[in-house]
């Protein structure tokens, strides 16, 4: 009987400690409100101004995603963006990331209109890259879920431009 209760107690302790470990782990990963579903592992800046400052300081390009919560195209793109491991990894390591649900006062961020979704790149010299566009001539900076490989190429292009130009 002694052995049986010791075993039961051990199992109970194991169960409690693994639950505790899970709770601690959950505690540590606080819900990432700034990601808004675009990637919880990515460090997001809060404002455009902060993004510009970080881009200049870190010599990384700033990627600005304009989107709206009730836009089905934004939701579809967000899902594809969040599911792309390669994009998530590059966004984490090589970019300053910002997603905005309102327009900025910087007119350079809406050269062809204020539509969503819209993804633009700003290099560390704080130049909005009008030369990094998507596939659609009517909305130059929009991407659709199937354009994720193209967006990835544009991210690589943004990084290459920094190395060659700045």
TrEMBL record:
SUPFAM superfamilies: Thioredoxin-like (SSF52833). Residues 1-23 form the signal peptide. Keywords: Signal. GO terms for molecular function: dystroglycan binding. InterPro entries: AGR/TXD, Thioredoxin-like_sf. GO terms for cellular component: endoplasmic reticulum. This is AGR3 protein. It comes from Tricholaema leucomelas. The lineage of its organism: Eukaryota, Metazoa, Chordata, Craniata, Vertebrata.
């Amino acid at each position: 009987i002694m052995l049986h209760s010791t075993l039961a107690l051990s199992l109970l302790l194991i169960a409690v400690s693994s639950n505790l470990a899970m709770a601690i782990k959950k505690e540590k990963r606080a819900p990432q409100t700034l990601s808004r579903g675009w990637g919880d592992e990515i460090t997001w800046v809060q404002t455009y101004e902060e993004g510009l400052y970080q881009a200049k300081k870190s010599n990384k390009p700033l990627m600005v995603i304009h989107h709206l919560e009730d836009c089905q195209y934004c939701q579809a793109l967000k899902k594809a963006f969040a599911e792309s491991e390669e994009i998530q990894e590059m966004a984490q390591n090589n970019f300053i990331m910002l997603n905005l649900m309102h327009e900025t006062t910087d007119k350079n961020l809406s050269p062809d209109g204020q539509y969503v979704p819209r993804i633009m790149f700003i290099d560390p010299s704080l130049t909005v890259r009008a030369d990094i566009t998507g596939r659609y001539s009517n909305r130059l900076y929009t991407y659709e879920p199937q354009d994720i490989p193209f967006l990835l190429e544009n991210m690589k292009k943004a990084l290459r431009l920094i190395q060659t130009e700045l």
